[in-house]
Amino acid sequence: MERKEEIYNIHELIDEKKDEEILSLIKNDEILLDKYKSLSIMLNDLKD
Questions:
Q1: In terms of pTM, does the model score above 0.70?
Q2: How far apart are the first and last CA of the chain?
Q3: How far, in Å, CA of 25 to CA of 23, rounded?
């Protein structure tokens, strides 16, 4: 079980890094930023 938790934690860190990179690329484009945020909310709702 510990191995699964390690993999999950690594996956979460990668996701956070990807989010940071994407946000830095689209931060000046309001339309893309709004769409990205909406998509993120939807995906988080699906996770739960």
A1: no
A2: 21
A3: 5
Residue-by-residue pLDDT tens, the chain, 48 positions: 688 788 778 878 888 888 899 889 998 999 999 998 898 888 888 876
Amino acid found at 7: I
Tally of domains in the chain? 1
Sign of torsion over alpha carbons 22, 28, 32, 34: positive
The whole-angstrom separation of Cα 27 and Cα 16 is 16
26 touches 32 (CB < 8 A): yes
> For the chain, where are the E strands, in sequence order?
none
Parent domain of 13 = 2-47
